[in-house]
Amino acid sequence: MAASPNPAGIGTKRIVVGAHYGVGGFLLQRLTAIVLTVFVLFLLLRVVFGGPLGYDGWAGLFVPLWMKIVALVALLALFYHAWIGVRDIWMDYVKPTGIRVALQTLTVLWLVFCAVWSVQILWRV
Amino acid sequence: MNSPFAASKPRPEFRNIHVSQILKYKLPPPGMVSIMHRISGAALFLTLPFILWLFDLSLTSELSYTRLGDFAAHWLVKLVLVGLAWAFLHHLIAGLRFLMLDLDVGVDKPAARTSALAVFAISLPLTLLAALKIFGAF
Questions:
Q1: What is the Cα A95 distance to its own chain's centre?
Q2: How many CB pairs under 8 A join A and B?
Q3: Cβ-defined contact of B59 to A125 (cutoff 8 Å)
Q4: What's the whole-model pTM score?
């Protein structure tokens, strides 16, 4: 990530072209990782150290609107994070374009399915 | 041919390794952390619907919450949950290490090796703790 020492100035005239989708995906995968870590630690601390919850305590956590929104943001971060990771796996191991595009399409559909389902789960409480 | 190199047997070369070579290819600890990060991530991705289904059961009603408890009482389900706990813990802790490496912290070889071993030293005992909890040891 950080620039390596480059005293000779090699490569400084290189013209970087393209849409930079790769950099965007790379950075968002890191950003979503941080969001997920914070959310999971918050939830774990609450559940592990908050004493026995039972159904009322557990479901009660997700009743306030702000908590539904926070949980949904965390889940959407998870699905985007998973998309970048699984896309990388297909790009590394699956060379034929047709099969790769098919697998990537299925991955997106799978994650959108999960995203819609999680809205329904959260807003039913 | 008195060259000292003549007697030494040719060193094995691994360029683009083939699937059949994977088991013979000895990975250093950072390599183990890396491939386990990928495997645990893929496992969590594939089990997403199962995890969401558990989450759904836990929230929908008191009845479904009880049903979840009954379902999770089976030893096979407990074993799957331990597997998921390992995948999650390894992915989380190895991921924190990768974030550190992205910031250029500890990228030299000895430090990277130490932090890779630290990932296992943290994630495996935590998995054991989770397993004991899941199987009702405490």
A1: 25
A2: 58
A3: yes
A4: 0.85
